[in-house]
Amino acid sequence: MANERILVVDDEEDLCEILQFNLEQAGYMVDVAYSAEDVLKQDNLDSYQLFMLDVMMGEISGFKLGTMLRKNDATANIPIIYLTAKYTEADKLRGFSIGADDYISKPYSINEVLARVKAVLKRTSQANANIVAAPKPNEIIPNKEEDILIYNDLQINLINKTTFIGANEISLTKKEFELLALFLQCRNRVLSREQLLENIWKGESNVLDRTIDVNITRLRKKIKPYDKNLQTKQGYGYIFTEK
């Protein structure tokens, strides 16, 4: 069953009720409004996944309302389907020029409406799934998020904060543990000094590059024979390599 929220806007109350009933039967959550003015009074427009707007309405037409929704950052990317008795090429081009995702001409069949609604929501869902948020400067995205990190017989438990090499538990300071965990999560990736500072010493003042070097030197001594895996890349930073 679908669970998307849809707002139907039409000054013909009978049509609103028919659309609401049939869309809800299809599993959607549907609200109705009988004018653009009623829509603009709402403060939760960003909670909808689709707007269905009649074109011919009162002082504020569906085209004008669509333009206003597109200019609002909160609703700019929510798809719009126009419901209209005006279906000339000029009207259609005007609607698409302000961001229409589809047109349904009146009179319409409910089956056509349901099919078009499903198609628009599917396209939107697929487009959103392909959007990857840009990482913040120096933000590190680990290869995997796991509770236990393992490399050969080197094992880190992120829950109880323990480190083992074979059967022997290794005593690490908080910073050493966080460094080793980060390197294992990002193995085979060079991590710059700036990234290490941002992710391990975030918010701490007066942290010098030398602080990183000291902690990594101590860490290497404690994780032998895996000290050879934790390598320095001159001019770039550090890497935990599996080679």
SS-based structural class?
A: alpha/beta
Strand content: 15-25%
Name the helix and strand elements from N-terminus to C-terminus, one letter apiece.
EHEHEHEHEHEEEEHHHEE
The strand line-up of the biggest sheet is: 2-1-3-4-5
Number of domains: 2
C-alpha termini separation = 49 Å
CATH topology group of the largest domain: Rossmann fold
Helix content: 25-40%
Attribute tags:
single chain, 243 residues, alpha/beta, Rossmann fold, Arc Repressor Mutant, subunit A, 2 domains, five-stranded parallel β-sheet, four-stranded antiparallel β-sheet, 8 helices, 11 strands, 37% helix, elongated
Write up what this structure looks like.
The structure is a single chain. The chain is of the alpha/beta class and 243 residues long. The chain has two domains: 5-129, Rossmann fold (3-Layer(aba) Sandwich), CATH 3.40.50.2300; 148-240, Arc Repressor Mutant, subunit A (Orthogonal Bundle). The chain is 37% helix and 19% strand. It contains eight helices and eleven strands. Strands 2-1-3-4-5 form a five-stranded parallel β-sheet, with helices on both faces. It has a four-stranded antiparallel β-sheet with strand order 6-7-8-9, with helices on one face. Strands 10-11 form a two-stranded antiparallel sheet. A hairpin with a 2-residue loop joins β8 and β9 (168-169). α6 (174-185) packs across α8 (209-222). The longest helix has 20 residues, at 110-129. The mean pLDDT is 84.
